[in-house]
Request: fold
Amino acid sequence: MSANNHYLNQLRDTLGRWTEEPAGPNADREADVASFEDAPPEGYATRRGYALAAAKAEVPATTMASSRDARSTAGIRDWWGEHFMSAAYASDSGKQIPVMDDDWRPSGQDRKTGRALSGNRRVHRMKYEGGGVALRMPSATMIKAYARENDGGAFDVPVEVTNTHTGATITAHVRLTQNGPGSWTAMGLGFKDGRDQAVVSEAVASVLEARHPRSALVSCGDLHEKFAERKRAEGALPRRVNSSWIGAVSYDRANGVSFMVTKDGRVYGKRATESMHNSAYTTRDRGAGEGWNKFMRKADSVAAARCDKCGRVYVADIGHVCTGWQRSRRTASPNQVARSAGLDYARDYWRKARAQQSKYEAENK
Reply:
């Protein structure tokens, strides 16, 4: 595991905004909350159960370790149970980025009887393997159809990923948006480990962008490095500054480049550290123009350009992966049926864990 990164650990709400710890249980759900009182306070299911029991509280997505293996189709009930438990949920009256339901079908397609929460057949899942990981999620065909019906907005998809070298498996959700033909943005939600987040995110994006999804991960190379390359190509979003001739500035951490956009639209890139960039543009002691002349003008230049669609500036020699989707996000009401199913699964989860612990203690007295 790699070292934690603070910005990855910072909680976000169901619309992707920064948020605080989820609110505690509500009085009208005391019966549900009380059912977790005997569980170990450090237990994942305990914390998640408390959060889900608070029906009026917003709950961010999280990840959890799983005992299954993504290479196997076994345990489909637990597969969905863990995803109901770990998904993001808005409050009762809130809105959130849509989450693919367990019974989703394209409009006009017949719904057959099955074991989804609705009583319909569950959405078709597929396994994609390669690059040291096995990924199981709704099929690429279904995800692309969902994106079309979501009008290009962001949405969350359940995934399960197994490290084929160690056998470790993680249950998670990935936020997806199709930026254009063959171009997707994928970001794992609730990850505490930056490397895990990068590998899972890139695995999903690689499958969706491939002409042959089933073999996409076989020849994809190092997923972590590929994710880093993708981030380097995203560029940075400029912010306005107070100046008579400088319109906006931004800093690209992935490439170590400071960008400056003049009011007439010209874009300049300079090789610089973040502290150097901040010294030039974030102090109240001088204007942006003075900061440019003092810190940036003589720094090594980098060819720069700006995307007309998303507004980001980027290193021209690297190219650009457009993230125009970030400007518009479609929202939906939370799936309270799935939330209740997640609460039920959390309750069963900790009860089984407590029974196993009691058995272990009895056998080792």
